[in-house]
Amino acid sequence: MRSILEAAERVLSVQPGASLEQIAEAAGVARTTVHRRFANRQALVDALALAAAAQLREAVDAAHPDTAPPLIALHQATANVLRTKRNWRFALELANTPGSAAFAEQEALAQRCVGLLGRARDQGLLAPDTDLEWTRRVYYALIGESIHGHTFGNLDGSEEDPDTLAGRIIDTVIYGAGPRR
């Protein structure tokens, strides 16, 4: 099933209207194999979104956001999320559909992010009066711009290292664009 989902991500990210037959061909399986696993195209798309959201959760979990020092957890989670989003661009956009299981996963991750930002605030990395939800939204926007904006892909076609980007994102969240104190 994973090979079908990975093929679906590759195909649908280039051709969002692709058929189950095209996805089966890209996965190297018979059309009937895809139809046996997924009742219809929407079922495949829903499974794709949920699988991508699960990958994102695993990427965050690997950073130990509840137990590692906040700055380390924030940096590692950011780098992991960048790597994951690079591979699941199409499917993670689908996870924004309210009411879906993938959306519930995204909401849970947002709450964990607010919790991690709260730990960072409690350790003095953020101002005591920081609006954590606003900070999370800005943080997410920085990640999104890093992935979808021109900074993730360089003009020569190479991609910037996720650890370097994570450092820039975290510096911006903590220090803004102003001079360091």
Give a verbal description of the structure.
The protein starts with a helix and ends in a 6-residue tail after the last helix. It has helices at residues 2-14, 20-27, 31-37, 41-61, 70-87, 89-94, 101-122, 132-148, 162-175. The mean pLDDT is 89. It folds into two domains: 1-38, Arc Repressor Mutant, subunit A (Orthogonal Bundle); 51-175, Tetracycline Repressor, domain 2 (Orthogonal Bundle), CATH 1.10.357. The chain is elongated and about 60 Å long. The chain is mainly α. The chain contains nine helices and no strands. The longest helix is centred in the middle third of the chain and has 22 residues, at 101-122. Helix 1 (2-14) packs across helix 2 (20-27) and helix 4 packs antiparallel against helix 5 (70-87).
Give a summary of the structure in a few sentences.
The protein has helices at 2-14, 20-27, 31-37, 41-61, 70-87, 89-94, 101-122, 132-148, 162-175.
Runs in which pLDDT lies below 50 for 5 or more consecutive residues are none
Count, helices: 9
Which architecture of the largest domain would the CATH scheme give at its second level?
Orthogonal Bundle
Taken in chain order, the helices and strands follow as HHHHHHHHH
* Quaternary structure classification: single chain
- What is the percentage of strand-forming residues? under 5%
Mean pLDDT: 89
Number of strands: 0
Number of domains: 2
What share of residues is helical? 55-70%
What integer value in Å does the Rg equal?
18 Å
The shape, in one word, is elongated
Reported for the largest beta sheet, the result is: none
The CATH topology assignment of the largest domain is Tetracycline Repressor, domain 2
- Taking the alpha carbons of the first and last residues, their distance comes to 52 Å
Instruction: Just give the CATH class of the largest domain.
Output: Mainly Alpha
Identify the CATH homologous superfamily of the largest domain.
Tetracycline Repressor, domain 2
Structural class: mainly alpha
